[in-house]
Amino acid sequence: MFVLFFVGAVLLAHYYLWHRLVRSTTGPGRVRKALTWGMVGLLLLVIATFLGTRMELGHWLAWPGFLWVAVMFYLVVILVVLEVPRGVVALVLRRVERRRPASAPVPVLVGADASTAVLEPVGAAPVVSEPVTSGSVSSGSVASESGASESGGSAPVAFAPGAISRRLFLGRTTAAIAGVSALGTVGYGVTSALGDPVIERVMVTLPKLDPRLGGLRFAVVSDIHLGPITGIGHTERIVRMINGLEADVVAIVGDLVDGSVAQLGALAKPLKSLESRYGAYFVTGNHEYFSPAGPGEWIEELGELGVRSLRNERVEIRHQGAVLDLAGVNDIGGTASGDGPDFGKALGGREAGRSTVLLAHQPVQVTEAARHGVDLQLSGHTHGGQITPFDLVVELQQPVVAGLATVDDVQVYVTRGAGFWGPPVRVGAPPEITLLELR
């Protein structure tokens, strides 16, 4: 269903762009045909990019393919927004043309050949054309040497210069505005996505928390998305920034990778240098299940790097003589393969009165967490929308898009993630690493 929806949306977007950027800006001919084939090529590039990266093939398509996806998205959004003002301007121009007084007659060459050609006002009374001899002209006509055809052809020739039509004027103006706006937005988004993540410092008050656990600090990071576009520098920067926070616990809340260990293992090596008082923990995200080998190979790889995976299980964090339950559940994406979340296994049999922090990739998992008395859930998945206004779509799927909120009496913190998926672009949702302190 997702594939069908995606392909349908891409086809519709490219047809709309062809209609507004090609058909509305050109007339029939070679230019329109060339631009049409160019649009077809961009459509095929998008499909090849997504198929290639999902199948671990053609990663060299990632940069041009994903960048075009971002430009395509903003072109569609901006052109749709411009439909209303475009329609208003078209209506105004149409009324202005109707109110404009009739123009003066336009001189047009008439006659069988250059020797008999005269200028006759279009719409005026017919003028009898007589042969021109000895430089003289007949009564009621005007001699024209400059308009005579050098080849002596007999076809009528219009003197009035052709003006651009209203359709082309509106089409080209709209296309120019949309093109400049889309390219500028994507350019800004690339610098945001590839730049340093923002450090968000958040205080969370848990009413039942043992006072001795006050001040316990979590470095929360999600959606790192090691993949065909990110290099090892992406991982090294994230590790360096987390270590600078001097957190007690590091929580990696899913979507670490977009590929296999064989392909991306080298990019994950810097995770071995993560520093924290009580360790680094990981739960699977939906992207861990996209790999043909499943998440198992990454669970093993992370174990060798010193990152413990919480697979429907919990551990005790002992701090200043008090204990906090830290639990983790698998992502919903593992349900189809029998590796989905098991809240009963992860949260059952806990000591009464002990506060619990749950790592769950998707915010929507909070509904089940509430049934098991969780105090705080840490999630990712949403990217904060990644590219505005896509956050409006995320709101239809998840109870929280970004930040701290309360859902079913459970506090949920959703990080925007430190990486990006698909286009290396972030607009309105900069990458984030969170330092979360319990009170």
From TrEMBL:
Pfam families in alphabetical order:
Metallophos (PF00149)
A GO CC term? Answer: membrane
The record, for SUPFAM superfamilies, names: Metallo-dependent phosphatases
Keyword annotations for this protein?
A: Hydrolase, Membrane, Metal-binding, Transmembrane, Transmembrane helix
Which CDD domains does the record match to this protein?
A: MPP_YkuE_C
For whether the record's keyword set contains Hydrolase, the answer is: yes
* Molecular functions per Gene Ontology: metal ion binding; UDP-2,3-diacylglucosamine hydrolase activity
Listed transmembrane segments: 34-53, 60-82
From its record, what is one biological process in GO terms? lipid A biosynthetic process
* Source organism, top-level taxon: Bacteria
Name of this chain's protein: Calcineurin-like phosphoesterase domain-containing protein
Q: Where is this region: Disordered?
A: 129-154
